[in-house]
UniProtKB/TrEMBL annotation:
It is a multi-pass membrane protein. This is Very-long-chain (3R)-3-hydroxyacyl-CoA dehydratase. It comes from Calcarius ornatus (Chestnut-collared longspur). It catalyses: a very-long-chain (3R)-3-hydroxyacyl-CoA = a very-long-chain (2E)-enoyl-CoA + H2O; (3R)-hydroxyhexadecanoyl-CoA = (2E)-hexadecenoyl-CoA + H2O. It is found in: Endoplasmic reticulum membrane; Membrane. Pfam families: PTPLA (PF04387). The keyword Lipid metabolism applies. Its EC number is 4.2.1.134.
């Protein structure tokens, strides 16, 4: 309906503004302060980044209730990956926040999202530009695996801090005889992360074929 389409347009616009601000801020800070800006990335734009990622949870609801026709599982995996890395790994460990890998992750995420939300906004209005369509469904194929590698690296460098500080590790009281050692949970999640990457990459290729097929491009041009 028109109301739902307008709601989705406003949602995409909000996300576009947030990610564009982050992306522009990162570039300006790097051009101004050089490498010194990399270690301060989280403290300068982390709040807006967290707001954008929390807002993205709505996309799961959009798919679930049927107003967005994207596939649920791939989008769910992509969103939860970011939530876990941003809020559980980075936000909880101040020592990790100053690492260069945070800047790399934010750059990859925002580059992908600026393109994606620009495409989505125009698509809500029935506007399809072939270069933008190609970029939206092609850029994610090389950049998503890079972002997964960056997520894995962020988890690896965070492990010593989780081990030394005991963050999220729980020792259950009597009569329970086991405890939850969070570094082991993160190591198991690494397996899930890379297994999910294979599934999502296959889905990205499927979406690219569906949207960039010759017949589809001709229909959108007409």
């Amino acid at each position: 309906s028109f109301t739902m389409n307008m709601y989705l347009f406003v949602y995409d616009l909000m996300q576009f503004c947030g990610h564009s601000w982050i992306f522009t801020n990162m570039i300006i800070r790097f051009m101004t302060f050089g490498k010194d800006s990399l270690a301060d990335t989280f403290h300068s734009i982390g709040l807006v980044m967290r707001l954008c990622q929390l807002l993205s949870v709505l996309e799961i609801l959009h798919i679930f209730i049927g107003i967005d026709k994207s596939r649920l599982l791939p989008r769910f995996l992509q969103i939860t990956e970011r939530i876990i890395i941003l809020f559980v790994v980075i936000n909880s460990q101040e020592e990790v926040q100053g690492k260069y890998i945070v800047c790399v992750l934010f750059f990859l995420w925002n580059l992908l999202d600026v393109v994606r939300y620009t495409y989505n906004m125009l698509a809500r209005m029935g506007i399809y530009y072939l270069p933008l369509t190609w970029l939206n469904f092609s850029l994610c194929i090389p950049l998503y695996p890079l972002s997964v590698l960056a997520k894995g690296f962020a988890i690896c460098i965070s492990l010593p801090y989780f081990e030394s500080f005991g963050t999220y590790s729980i020792k259950l009281p009597f009569p329970f005889t086991f405890s939850i050692y969070f570094p082991y949970v993160l190591k198991m999640y690494l397996i899930v992360l890379f297994a999910g990457m294979c599934f999502i990459i296959r889905n990205l290729f499927s979406e690219r074929t569906a949207h960039l097929g010759t017949g589809n491009i001709k229909n959108k041009r007409s």
